[in-house]
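> Could you send the Endo-1,4-beta-xylanase A prediction when you get a chance?

Sure thing. Input:
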Amino acid sequence: MNNKLLSPQIFTLVACLGLALAPLGCAKDVPADDMGSDTSGDGDGDPGDGDGDPTTGDGDGDPTTGDGDGDPTTGDGDGDPMGDAPNGAPCTSNGECLSGNCYVIPLLGGQCGECDNVDLDADCPDGGCTIPNPFENNGSTCNMGEAGGGCQTDEVCQDGLTCGTVLDLLGLIKISTCGECASDADCTDQICAPVVIVENFDGQNTCIDVGSLAQDSFCDLEGNGDEACENVCSTVDIMGLAEVGACGQCNEDADCDGGGTCQGGEFDINSGMLFGSTCVM
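Output:
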């Protein structure tokens, strides 16, 4: 019986079968600096290269979580404490975003963007921080201090504009922007009122004619809303948590001519649209 020498390919097959349960594959040799005991910054074994535990070589910032990241809070696998989420992506902390900024709006969630809800204007060298629209994935943006641009103080607004709050829900959800007026004294034969498009999450204080805000427009319940609306500034309840104003036809049945019933306005939480009260016959 003739015995044949085993070919190199057979040795390779036997070796692979013997190492089937080992973490190293047989498709290619693995350099020594890819092992968990190395700290060369090559993607494994070093706290800064994607593996926080130099003894495991598992590419994990925490060997118990399996997040594949040198920083166990981001889990993006690159060893960099910043995340990979682009602007407009949902987030809960700055570490999840590629920009390093997560703007969180209470009750509505956060989005990655150019500025966050802590530093705000400080993140924007040429103007203020415009908050993201929670009804769209647009992310927060840095503006040039133009009318309608987000702000914290007058300093970031362009000449002739002032920073004012146009929408405030319980002190939690607040929109402050650069506008052309701060009070009626800044307007000639007009009144200063917030003109806000809630579904776009933007607006500004501007000079308008008395009674010029149309049905369903946002109006200032605590200010000159009745004066600004065509009829009245009606109260809209938001899930029992807060109240906002929307131009409507009535606040009570007595406001309806001909014995009609006053039907309260509403806020569509899905679209952000406001609807003022109406008289129903």
